Structure formats: C-alpha cells, structure tokens
Amino acid sequence: xxxxxxxxxxxxxxxxxxxxxxxxxxxxxxxxxxxxxxxxxxxxxxxxxxxxxxxxxxxxxxxxxxxxxxxxxxxxxxxxxxxxxxxxxxxxxxxxxxxxxxxxxxxxxxxxxxxxxxxxxxxxxxxxxxxxxxxxxxxxxxxxxxxxxxxxxxxxxxxxxxxxxxxxxxxxxxxxxxxxxxxxxxxxxxxxxxxxxxxxxxxxxxxxxxxxxxxxxxxxxxxxxxxxxxxxxxxxxxxxxxxxxxxxxxxxxxxxxxxxxxxxxxxxxxxxxxxxxxxxxxxxxxxxxxxxxxxxxxxxxxxxxxxxxxxxxxxxxxxxxxxxxxxxxxxxxxxxxxxxxxxxxxxxxxxxxxxxxxxxxxxxxxxxxxxxxxxxxxxxxxxxxxxxxxxxxxxxxxxxxxxxxxxxxxxxxxxxxxxxxxxxxxxxxxxxxxxxxxxxxxxxxxxxxxxxxxxxxxxxxx
Length: 462
Description:
By secondary structure, this protein is an alpha/beta fold. The protein has 13 helices and 18 strands. It has a domain of about 30 residues.
C-alpha cells in the first residue's frame, strides 16, 4: 500500500487528455433569443458528429450546438480512446442483443469507421491516431474458452483477427496475468479523445455551425410545430432538437428510466522511459481490454504514458460529482490492479487520475429515445464505447429525426428501446451489491457468481 500511495502522491485529479495547452478557447455563452433549424444540446462526440453530418448533408441548414460546460469536457474527454468498427459495444454484446441484425450492424460498423476516418483525413485532423489494433486478453485460464468464442465471432464476420496463446500474447504485451488474446488487426487502434473533440469542433465551425459553450439547458417547451430550448441566459426556437447529453442533463425526465449513471475511474502514468517500455514489449501499441468481470482497459499515449482504466462505481441518485471521486485514495484499488497487471513497472508513478459518469443501459449500447412528437430525439447509452460509435449514433439519430426512409431504421436496434431500470433506492441497492460482487466474483465465486447470474437474467450483460 505504501508503494501505491507513493505512486499516486503527485497525481493531478483531472483527465490527462484535457490537461493540454493546445485546448481551444471556449465559444461565448448564448445570451438572448435566437432561432435555428436544428439545435444540438451537448458538445461531446455525438453532438459534434451530428453537427458535421447534418451540415454536410444540407449546407443551408442553420445548426446550433450548445454545451453546458466546455466542448469535449464531458464523457468525450475522459475515455481510453480505443478505436474499432463496433457500434454496439463489441461483437459479443452485439450478438447478444441483436443476433438478427448482426450482418447489417457489421456492415454499418465498417461503413461508420470508414466515414469517421475519411472526415479526419480530409480535414487534416491532428488526433494522435495510431492503427495498432485492438487486443482482448484473458487474465486466467478459465476465461480462455470465452476468448475462443470471441475469436470465432471475429472470423464469422470477416475480421482480420488472430488468436494468441499465452506465449504469443506475452510477446505482444508482457503481463503475468495474460493467458491468451484475440488481436483484431484491421480498422482498430487508438486516438487522443480530447484532440478528436477539439478537431470536430474546428471542422463543424468551418462548415458554418454556430456554437455556444458555457450555456446549460434549463428547460424545453413544446410549441407545437417547434421546440423552445431554454438556457441559463437565452432561448432558442428550433424546428428540431437532438439531445446529445448524458441522461441527467437531457431534455426529458423519462430518459433516466432506461439509463443509470455509473462512474469509471482512469489513471495515466508519467511518460515511460525507453528502458521501462522495453520491459513491456507492446511494440504494436494496441488498445487492450481484459476479461475480468471488473474489466480493465489500457493503451499507450503518443508520449508513451499508459492510460489504465476500470473499476466502475455508482453513487446514489446518479450523483455526477461525488466527493469520493475527488479524493486520491479512491484510485488506490485501480492503481493496485495496474501494478498487479504490470509488476515489472514498480518504479512507475501516476501523473493524472480522473473519474466521471457514463450512461449504462441494459443493452450497453447506443439507443434512440423519441420525444415531443418526433421533434426531439435523445441519442446515448454507449456505456463507454463511444469513441467511434458516436458518429454512428449521430447519423442514425439524425435519420430518425428527419424521417429518412432507410431499411436499417426498421431493424430492432433503431426501432426498440432497452428495458427499464428500477428507480431509487432499488437501483442504488442493486448497484452496490453488483459492484461488490464484481470485485470478488473472479476469485471467490460463491454467492457473488449467483448474484451476477441473476443480474444477467434481469438483462444487464456484466
């Protein structure tokens, strides 16, 4: 414990991605009344992609983005930044929730990533993009059959993937925990998420999108043929609205019925020396997920830090700023997981530690909630897998909002909703039991496994 506390002692409680001198200045807040064809509430990935896609589709459309804080400072400024073709939280989750839609979802996922990449290349976006692949690792022998099933799904749907045994996965990333791996080589890698948000902001502004930061939405009025978006100091009357916020900041009380806000914790190390990197291997610089029930994810940054995340938590009534997550001791268990994963890096220190809420639904994937007679739509629920899927969510959300006649909109993923989540205090009780069980189920089993199985039966794919 002394080593862990020492390694955390100088860490800044702020996302590494956002602690960057190249961050753009905020746009001025909205003061007064205005009108727009489309107002987008939320300046994260979904809102920014929606603005870009909608403006490209119709350059004459008057589009406004409002953001309560700073562009990219919500969930889009906190993730690991792992890039893939998945639009439904991975192949295993997609095949669980939409087995009949899989061929279409796979095609849409590849199309989405191609469009994602094309926009960045055409606009010369500086986002530290690396195409090292995506690596899923089993942390114990009992999880190898699960990894085998994931590999079979990769091959079934034509992914360029290889199954690695213990020796082969150790040659990729040296950790005594890794027993096997599935390495998806094509169309996957890592990106700097804050730079991605800032570059999307630049692209959208260049297309003529109006933007206001420091402009929290305080209410919505249905005017019949239009909506009025009320902000702290202004009012926007628009024909349509796309709500691209977390559930607790969105434009309708019912959104929260299908979403729970869980907390994800993340650490970033100081830059590794060449000698420290040599202890790791990791020459291909893949984004990595493990198969723990309380999973960890990890990747290298452009300046050779390790970003290491996991250990989700929940606070009563979806508290989005709990005091516990602003205390460095909260990150000690995550730091312990880091050193257990990479014991050869016992001389590494952490520069940043951060946390924040992510929307979790029973699908663990994006969905679309329609409100105000079709004039408003909420898009969200990526469950932490939104770095590239947000472009897909934005595109589908816009298609629904504008009544596009596309065959995929009649499929289950676009036409149905995830199940309800019980209100407080039941969601807090359930969440606390579940988080405790997740911490211990891999090693102690017993009632913890039984509880996790029950949660599975209720629709949560943990």
